[in-house]
């Protein structure tokens, strides 16, 4: 536990002492839990496209919109959400994220019936709208509650919630709902399971989810609190804080997550194109992809806290993801189900960690801009790209086949790898942290 006191160089005011609180893990885990429930619902219907299409008598493309809605709403709501997070802080943003998820989940309890697909979309609209308050928060929680040497790990753990939810969504959905039983009854069970999962955490967030710890965890946060009354906001869009390097990284990030989201949405259709009655296998492959990705996120979090090799990690992730999609195409063409499982797992290990690694690299490039604003901008760009890619690749899949759809994703990842190599390795935040550590040692 740190407890340092450092006077400011340019002011007579002393900084607050710094202290780490054990409750930081409670804050992080509560956030991860409700983000997890939200993440389940992104893949809730798209993981069983054929079944949902049959029950509600809608096209596969309409079912895909239950996931695409998440990607479309994020860029639209990112600016107001970032404003709320900056002005009102973590507690208000957490209430928006958690209660929005709860409302959407409860709405879908009334979606059972072949003519009630509109109720499904209304519920998805609420849960998708709340995602914008969820994805902006991991870097903010890490900065406000954790010390500098834990920030990358905390951010990685924070992003596990939606990813773990996506993974569990594949497994939970195919376990409960299948084409051979009473689809309506099984969908009802699925909706009630989600409602039971979200209600307790909503009560928890309402009762206790503090804005910030009594004392800051780092000197940077101590300075931020001391100067907060001056209302001198650091704009991300000033030329000094929005360098060309960040713009290049933004493009690379959007491309990578665009491919990732497209695979999540269309995996069931890819697998079903090569294997008959493979709805359950597609769901399990999706689970493997996301679940193994969680291990990758944790591993990269530890690695980055020790080495701070953000650019190198991004390039490595890109290269392995590109090769994985190429190998997945070969495995499906060869009708090798086991190889498809293995390659999906490898793809998840290597591409899922790009979400927190890319967040952290973007924050390094734009420091000291607000973490939630940077994360929001990165994710908004990625969601915009996800919609374009998912719709485009879905049409390629329909008109030309899965081989050409997967080949398109391989080409896009190759281009993205080249873009990522052009990002300058400008670690602004690490330079400041290093300077602060030297100041503390000098004072002692």
Automatic annotation (TrEMBL):
GO terms for cellular component: membrane. Coiled coil: none annotated. SUPFAM superfamilies: MFS general substrate transporter. InterPro entries: FLVCR1-2_SLC49-like, MFS, MFS_trans_sf. The chain crosses the membrane at residues 25-42, 62-85, 92-111, 117-139, 151-172, 187-209, 242-267, 282-303, 315-332, 338-362, 374-396, 402-423. It is a multi-pass membrane protein. It holds the Pfam family MFS_1. It is found in: Membrane. One of its GO terms (molecular function) is heme transmembrane transporter activity. Keywords: Membrane, Transmembrane, Transmembrane helix. GO terms for biological process: heme export. This is Major facilitator superfamily (MFS) profile domain-containing protein.
């Amino acid at each position: 536990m740190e407890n340092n006191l450092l006077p400011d160089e340019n002011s007579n005011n002393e900084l607050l002492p710094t202290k780490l609180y054990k409750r930081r893990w409670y804050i992080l885990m509560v956030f991860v839990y409700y983000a997890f429930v939200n993440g389940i619902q992104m893949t809730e219907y798209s993981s069983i496209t054929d079944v949902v299409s049959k029950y509600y008598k809608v096209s596969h493309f309409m079912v895909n919109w239950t996931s695409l809605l998440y990607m479309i709403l994020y860029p639209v709501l990112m600016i107001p959400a970032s404003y709320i997070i900056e002005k009102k802080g973590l507690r208000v943003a957490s209430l928006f994220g958690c209660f929005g998820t709860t409302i959407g989940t409860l709405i879908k309890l009334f979606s059972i019936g072949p003519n009630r697909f509109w109720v499904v979309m209304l519920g998805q609209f609420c849960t998708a709208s709340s995602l914008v308050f969820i994805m902006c928060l991991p870097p903010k929680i890490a900065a406000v509650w954790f010390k500098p040497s834990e920030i990358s790990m905390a951010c990685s753990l924070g992003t596990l919630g939606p990813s773990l939810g996506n993974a569990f969504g594949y497994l939970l959905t195919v376990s409960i709902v299948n084409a051979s039983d009473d689809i309506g009854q099984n969908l009802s069970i699925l909706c009630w399971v989600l409602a039971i999962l979200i209600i307790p955490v909503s009560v928890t967030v309402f009762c206790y989810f503090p804005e910030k710890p009594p004392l800051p965890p780092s000197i940077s946060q101590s300075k931020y609190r001391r100067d907060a009354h001056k209302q001198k906001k650091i704009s991300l869009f000033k030329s000094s804080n929005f360098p060309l390097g960040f713009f290049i990284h933004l493009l690379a990030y959007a491309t990578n997550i665009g491919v990732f989201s497209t695979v999540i949405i269309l995996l069931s259709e890819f697998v079903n194109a090569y294997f008959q009655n493979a709805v359950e296998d597609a769901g399990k492959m999706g689970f493997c992809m996301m679940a193994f990705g969680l291990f990758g996120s944790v591993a990269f979090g530890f690695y980055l806290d020790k080495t701070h090799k953000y650019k190198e990690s991004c390039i490595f992730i890109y290269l392995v993801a590109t090769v994985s999609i190429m190998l997945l195409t070969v495995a499906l063409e060869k009708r090798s189900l086991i190889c498809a499982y293995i390659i999906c797992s490898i793809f998840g290990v290597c591409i899922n960690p790009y979400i927190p690694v890319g967040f952290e690299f973007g924050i390094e490039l734009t420091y000291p801009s607000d973490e939630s604003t940077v994360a929001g901008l990165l994710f908004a760009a990625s969601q915009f790209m996800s919609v374009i890619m998912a719709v485009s690749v879905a049409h390629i899949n329909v008109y030309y086949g899965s081989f050409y759809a997967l080949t398109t994703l391989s080409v896009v990842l190759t281009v993205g790898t080249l873009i990522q190599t052009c990002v300058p390795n400008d670690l602004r935040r690490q330079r400041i942290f290093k300077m602060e550590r030297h100041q503390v040692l000098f004072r002692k």
